Amino acid sequence: MSPKQVVFKKASRDKSVAVYLAKRDFVDHCDIVDPVDGVIFIDPVLLQGKKVYVMLSCTFWYGRQDEDVMGVAFRRDLFLVTRQVYPELQDKDKLTHTKTQQKLLRKLGDNGFPFFFEFPDNLPCSVALQPGPSDVGKKCAVEFEVKAFCGQSQNEKIDKESSVRLSIRKIQFSPEISELVPSAETTFEFLMSEEPLTVKLSLPKETFYHSEPVTVNVDVTNSSSRNIKDISVSVEQVTNVVLYSNDKYVKSVAKEETKDSVPCGTSLKKQYTLFPVLTHNKDRRGLALDGRLKHEDTNLASSSIVKQEVMKEVQGILVSYKVVLRMMACGEVSLEVPFRLMNPKPEPETGDGRLHSCSHTRFELAEILLKQCSVSDGRSPLLLLQLRVMECD
């Protein structure tokens, strides 16, 4: 079977412009972010002398899209850049950065024009807060979008009939496995008690994957004169919404409440297992979720990893997780440990389904396989290469 490269396509209603993208998920590797590159296809007859522009935007929504208050919409553009693609201001070769663009330009002919954008370092990833049953039409989310439109200038009102919008996502995967073992230890001293209460909390690793159980190790040594009871362990999602102010929301996404006790002069060593998954939190309003395209399934939002030097500049929604241990003595005693909840980095695949080194892109791998095929059967590699175009809603 010949290898295929999936390409996403969306055209305007009047068919004057269309956007082609090789992917809709762009990975933030912390040190660099995958650039957004694609091709715009135009119909010069339908354009009637108008110019064509392409725009990359990052928008923070915090209300209904179709309403505003005194002319102010419930949105804020965190990043917005627009470039003219037709008539050309630069040579096509300077804007062609990938094998996919080259193949698309050969396929689309003279009416195909490449574009290329780079993300700045201070943008959040695609995240949305889960709405409640009464929040119909409302949303609080960070969304990314590629838009192509035509007009006499980029500042005139955009005609919906001759414009096209394609949603994309900025995502992060788990970094390389760290040998760091998250742990915390503290002592509590009580009035009228000569000896303290010692509590240790630890996790087997720093990063857990979505749908993976979180194992929590608890070690309590009660040398005090107080009895410890009602031990509970929970995973809490901490969501920082940074816009005009810095608002913090803390919600439990997994919890185990027990009747475990530690009488004075005794100790307890126990392992608890928690399952922080969206299926157990479907109706929880305000939980942060990973951004999604249309009606795809999603999960709890992945932990945000931001470079320290741009932390103060980042706006949008930032997410972190922690395990919290609570117990009752004369009052509540608590201890917490932070950790990461993320998706694993996927392994690249070749056209024949076998794993391959990351040193080649998917399109380059396809070309390598095609050259091997051409040697064996004498056919041209170009005849074996197929672009599977997916029409997007």
TrEMBL record:
Coiled coil: none annotated. One of its GO terms (cellular component) is photoreceptor inner segment. It comes from the Eukaryota. InterPro entries: Arrestin (IPR000698), Arrestin-like_C (IPR014752), Arrestin-like_N (IPR011021), Arrestin_C-like (IPR011022), Arrestin_N (IPR014753), Ig_E-set (IPR014756). SMART domains: Arrestin_C. It holds the Pfam family Arrestin_C. PANTHER family: ARRESTIN, S-ARRESTIN. This is S-arrestin.
